[in-house]
Amino acid sequence: MDIYFSCAKLQKACNLEQESIKKWGPEIAKKVRQRLSELKAADSLSDISHLPPPRLHELTGERKGRFAVDLQQPFRLVFEPAHDPIPLNGSGGIDRSKITAILINGVEDYHGKKKKRRSK
């Protein structure tokens, strides 16, 4: 799968070990690199398991159209399909088998009362 980043700063943090450790700490940094490696190796988004450990899941609400994979609780790697238009299946949902490129939006904990973003 092709992977793009929403900004150069995020790309640097995700791709350079020392930058990711500085930004997120060693445990989350390791998980970010692991998940990116899994995503790069996949032919499409349907190759990524919806079961743990990656636990790919589609987001809802204001993050509708985006996906996340687990890192270290409560942080997630958040991304969206990098297709225009986004491929849909027969029922109108996103066709994961046709998603072959993604845009990484950040590393987030979106479960708390306040939105916490750790990507910028």
Task: Sum up the structure in keywords.
alpha+beta, YaeB-like fold, 3 helices, 6 strands
**What oligomeric state is this?**
single chain
Can you tell me the overall shape? globular
Classify the secondary structure makeup into a structural class.
Answer: alpha+beta
DSSP helix count?
A: 3
Mean pLDDT: 92
CATH architectural group: 2-Layer Sandwich
Written overview of the protein:
The chain is α+β, with helices and mostly antiparallel strands and 120 residues long. The chain has a single domain, classed as RelE-like (YaeB-like fold), CATH 3.30.2310.20. It is built from three helices and six strands. Strand 2 (57-58) and strand 3 form a beta hairpin. The chain is globular. The two termini are 24 Å apart.
Question: Can you describe this structure in just a few lines?
Answer:
The chain has 120 residues and is α+β, with helices and mostly antiparallel strands. It is built from three helices and six strands. A hairpin with a 6-residue loop joins strand 5 and strand 6 (116-117).
